[in-house]
């Protein structure tokens, strides 16, 4: 029997444990045939980046991410869905975002995770500022056109 999917969304400063989140979502469940995860991490941009600072408006971020999570749960037959997005100072090699989707079948889990990441990259209300290693001034990161294009698929 497939249980209804109730999305689990967190916006937090703290890091997350990917394995623990997978276990929380799918552990002991016999109706889950596929679990897809995407973990976005901070790159060092060839050694040039000291840190990425992510800012957000809490009420707006929570509301909008929950809305798109509910949309994914309606569009695909998911048995579980977790989205965690961090804010604050994040250094290269550290986690930024986690999307975990579970379903009876892989296609739904893959498609839902892809849809959610396209949304998070282009529309989620987060603002990123890069802090270079060499003491240059920090700069705001502009949205990428290819992220907007990717969202049009859905």
Automatic annotation (TrEMBL):
Entry GO MF terms: molybdopterin synthase activity
InterPro entries: MoaE_sf, Mopterin_biosynth_MoaE
One GO biological process term: Mo-molybdopterin cofactor biosynthetic process
Pathway where this protein functions: Cofactor biosynthesis; molybdopterin biosynthesis
Signal peptide: none
Keywords: Molybdenum cofactor biosynthesis
Catalytic activity field: 2 [molybdopterin-synthase sulfur-carrier protein]-C-terminal-Gly-aminoethanethioate + cyclic pyranopterin phosphate + H2O = molybdopterin + 2 [molybdopterin-synthase sulfur-carrier protein]-C-terminal Gly-Gly + 2 H(+)
Record EC number: 2.8.1.12
Keyword Transit peptide: no
Pfam families: MoaE (PF02391)
Record text on subunit structure and interactions: Heterotetramer of 2 MoaD subunits and 2 MoaE subunits. Also stable as homodimer. The enzyme changes between these two forms during catalysis.
Physiological role: Converts molybdopterin precursor Z into molybdopterin. This requires the incorporation of two sulfur atoms into precursor Z to generate a dithiolene group. The sulfur is provided by MoaD.
Family indicated by similarity: Belongs to the MoaE family.
Name of the protein this chain belongs to: Molybdopterin synthase catalytic subunit
